[in-house]
Structures are given as C-alpha cells and as structure tokens.
C-alpha cells in the first residue's frame, strides 16, 4: 500500500521562495561574470597597445568579444527573468 503524504502549504511557499532567491542569485552571478569578461577585454585592449616598433594592433578577435558577451548576458538575463516570473506566478 502506498500512503499519500500531504505537504503543508507553508513548506511549499518556503520552497518556492528559496527557488526564487536561487534564481536571483544566478542572475547576479551572470551579471558579475559579464562585468568580469568586459573588464578583461578592456584590459586586453589596453595591454595590446602597439609599441613603437609594432604597426598594427591585433584586436580583431577582441572586438568580437564585446557583442558576444553582451548577447550572452542579454539571453541569460531574459531566461532568468522568465524563470523568476514563472515562479512568482
């Protein structure tokens, strides 16, 4: 025989609240990662300034990093907002 265990509504709300907090923390971590990547790309641009003997700055691969990181942040933020909205509903 299987007995049905009933979970108290308070525990359900506590679990939902913890899930929302976890999603908010994930969103903040994604923002921190984006800031770290952007600052790293800027630091690489500054570090790769051409010297007196160099004629060209190899930034082609760095220039692509900014839109890619911005797009990733936008998608991660959109996904996190949708998850938080669904959990709060």
Give a quick rundown of the structure.
The chain is built from three helices and no strands. The chain is mainly alpha-helical and 89 residues long.
Helix percent band: over 70%
Secondary-structure-derived class? mainly alpha
β-sheet strand percentage: under 5%
Name the poorly predicted regions.
Answer: none
Number of strands: 0
Q: Rg to the nearest angstrom?
A: 22 Å
Mean pLDDT: 81
Put simply, the count of helices is 3
The SSE order reads: HHH
Please give the alpha-carbon distance between the first and last residues: 35 Å
Indicate the overall shape: rod-shaped
Explained architecture:
The two termini are 35 Å apart. The chain is built from 3 helices and no strands. The chain is mainly alpha-helical and 89 residues long. It has a domain at 58-89. It is 75% helix and 0% strand. It is rod-shaped, with a radius of gyration of 22 Å. Helix 1 runs antiparallel to helix 3 (65-88).
List keywords for this structure.
mainly alpha; 89 residues
List the helices and strands and how they pair.
Blueprint: H1 9-47, H2 60-63, H3 65-88
């Amino acid at each position: 025989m299987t007995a049905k265990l009933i979970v108290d509504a308070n525990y359900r709300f506590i679990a939902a609240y913890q899930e929302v907090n976890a999603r908010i923390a994930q969103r903040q971590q994604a923002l921190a990662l984006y800031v770290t990547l952007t600052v790293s790309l800027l630091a690489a641009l500054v570090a790769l300034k051409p010297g007196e003997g160099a004629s060209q700055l190899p930034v082609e691969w760095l220039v692509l990093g900014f839109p890619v990181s911005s797009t990733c942040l936008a998608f991660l933020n959109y996904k996190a907002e949708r998850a938080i909205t669904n959990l709060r509903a």
